[in-house]
Amino acid sequence: MTLFKNKYRVESTRLPNRDYSQNGWYFVTICTYEREWLFGDVVNGQVHLSTIGQIAQKFWAEIPQHSKNTYIDAYVIMPNHVHGIIVIDNPESKEISPSKDVTQCRDVPWNVSTKSDGNDNSTTSDDDFDETDVYRNLSKMSPKAGSLSVIIRSYKAAVTRWCNMNGYPNFAWQQRFFDKIIRADGSVDHIREYIINNPLKWDYDKNNSSGLWM
To answer: Which tens digits make up the pLDDT trace of 111-121?
Structure first.
């Protein structure tokens, strides 16, 4: 991490010649703006999601429904950030790592309770909102359709739009996101363990920005 305008920012890990629409496994971290606690809290190692947190989890789980040839593995919604593994597996492309069998992907959250924190005042039901149009419209825009950037941008936009429509106009994401290509070296198990144990480390990470990144 480097200091820029008295704030720490994460250096880009993107490879300059990498096509991020090609097959691969990607570890992604997305933060709320200023790392504000908007998704809930962690109590005794268990995440208790707010209404916005539940929407963030719901839309993350639905990413494969809106992004073709995309799957999700382990993920967790934390009070101010999201960790998750995204798999792009286009049958027309040969490269895929670290596992060729993407049907084994585990699209379930870790250490998460869907119990509301009791402080939310949502005014519109989920039935009144369809994020499909958000995904469809953004996926047609640059960068390359089907790329990791489009997948994440569409997800962030869907959550933001829901918040704007349901009485949370101040919700915002951090502009950038962190991603790491998962190599076929067994590191996926280490990353899954990191995601699973993230709520248990919250008491340390919540006051330590560098603790958000592996």
So the answer is: 444 344 544 44
Residue 162 tokens read as 């829901």
pLDDT in tens, 166-202: 999 999 999 889 999 998 888 999 999 999 999 999 9
Using DSSP's 3-state secondary structure scheme, residue 145 falls into: coil
Q: Global pTM?
A: 0.73
Residue-wise burial string across 170-208, b where 16 or more C-beta atoms lie within 10 A, e elsewhere: ebebbeebbbbbbeeeebbeebbeebeebbeebeebbee
Long-range contacts, stretch 166-171, CB < 8 angstroms, 24+ apart:
166/51, 166/122, 166/123, 166/124, 166/129, 167/121, 167/122, 167/123, 167/124, 168/52, 171/32, 171/38, 171/52
Give 173's contacts (C-beta < 8 A, 6+ positions apart): 30, 31, 32, 33, 156, 159, 160
pLDDT at 123: 40
Q: Give alpha helix (H) positions in the chain.
A: 51-61, 63-66, 132-139, 148-165, 187-197, 202-205
Specify the pLDDT at position 20.
Answer: 56
Q: How far apart are CA 212 and CA 80, in angstroms?
A: 10
Cross-strand partners of 46: 43
State how beta strands 24-31 and 81-88 pair: antiparallel
User: What pLDDT was estimated at residue 57?
Assistant: 98
